Amino acid sequence: MDLLNDRGSKEPFLAEAGFADRVGRLAFDQGLVLFGMQGCVNTILGDELLIIPPLVITRPQIDYLNSDSGRLFDSGGKGGPVRNREKSRALMERARAVMAGGVGSGGRAALKPYPLYFDHGMGSRLYDVDGNEYIDYVLGLGPLILGHTPPAVISFVKTQLERGQIYAAQHELEVLLSEKLVQLIPCADMVNYNNTGSEGLQVALRLARAYTGRQKVIKFEGHYHGWMDNIYVSCHPPLTQAGPADAPHGVLSHGQVTSILNDLIILPWNNLDVIEATLEHQSGEIAAIITEPIVTSGGVILPRPGYLEGLRDLCTRSGVVLVFDEVVTGFRVSLGGAQEYLGIIPDLAVFGKALGGGFPISCIAGRGDIMDLIARREVVHAGTYNSNPISIAAAYATVAELEKDGGKVYDHLFTLGRQLMDGLEHLFRELRLPVLIQGPGPMFYVYFTDQEQVMDYRTYLQADAEAYARFSVALQERGVFTQTGRGLWYLSAAHTQDDVMLTLQAAAEALELSQVDRQRVAARPH
User: Fold this and answer.
1) Measured distance CA(335)–CA(329) in Å, rounded
2) Active site residue 498
3) Does residue 193 carry a catalytic annotation?
4) Helix ranges (DSSP H) in 376-489
5) Among residues 21, 128, 136, 325, which one is catalytic?
6) pTM of the prediction?
7) Which of 224, 307, 396, 468 is catalytic?
8) What are the tens digits of pLDDT across the range 145-172?
9) Is the peptide bond preceding residue 238 cis, with omega within 30 degrees of 0?
């Protein structure tokens, strides 16, 4: 670390463990924010670089911060609590030596101030390896619709574990679950299973191409349909590469095969005119249109009135297979997914996440004449772990819990979600901070923006993601775990009104620290 002394020159300084966090609290006390600003004091934590705004730290201040009194910044003080995370930090450093990026999935590497390590979860709470407790609104990125370790699911899975893990053959539970899903999902004449959403979506695209005899697929800018080469295109493209708004370019990540762009047409979402014009000229080449019925990966964006109805009609008239990616929305907004919630029935849909209640599974559901291509073995659908007894048991128990009392849990999810959304919005308005909170309730998105509505990927990008990240980190310090990289929040059946009250209290404290953001926003021309 370089220390900026009273005379403005730098001298080397060896910081002891925890010192950087205490410097952070000092910065907060002076109305400064740690992330995303130019500064002159750099603190290296492993491979992480935290930039503190211009702040002169003298030798006496260093001595104070390293004293017993200064260590009070580790657990409290005017700037709010800083939690001890030494074990998480140490594990992260060890992981980076043996795992690419130090994480098991690439997106986790961007977590601020660094990826945390957790020991266990229970209900609506998570507990990290340092003993810190959090109200969890990440919920495993969506699967934990019943919360952590729901007793009914865990008990059912334990029973199945004692009977066997995998048979490479059929078992009664997969028939029972399939019968239930065909009854619940509007588009489902038949179902089949894989283990991840990425796999299931590949089956859906293969079925669409086989059924139509066509090759091209329309995919929308900002939508995520798994990480496979042929569909991971223009998920979060930088605008410098994305092309015009009404005719986006296909943007790939490093290592992808460029020839896949020949079979994909990238279009803006929520714009029916562009789709109609495209189908008018190329309908004979297009096998499928794939879409999230409610966009989740690029903000929780609902379709414009009439948009999905128009999409359904255009696909029917053009002989194009309409595929809904319900990996996130399935069983989260309704027992029948977003297609039931919105009243639009696709030809094929893929479910995942909430279906398994925390266990890996995906389900392809669709029209009998299309799904029959698998039955006739004209379309390959394979996988050693497909419909394995453990995942099927978890899904069966999860759906049974969601069905109880006529699906009463959804009243809880919508009501609690709306209370939290309204409470957060009120806090922002009281502080005259621009905010947009949109979504159905069981999931929603918090935007730092003065826009009245976000309707597509380009308007999603106009929000202040860095300011939100700072807010999320401040929440994390107060025992509320959200995604620091984006404003997507999930609710579970295990969340309570007490959780909402505590979350709003933490948010109020976190927002009070946003003096720099408030000043910056106030100075911005409107």
Assistant:
1) 10
2) no
3) no
4) 389-407, 409-430, 457-460, 465-477
5) 325
6) 0.82
7) 224
8) 999 999 999 999 999 999 999 999 999 9
9) no
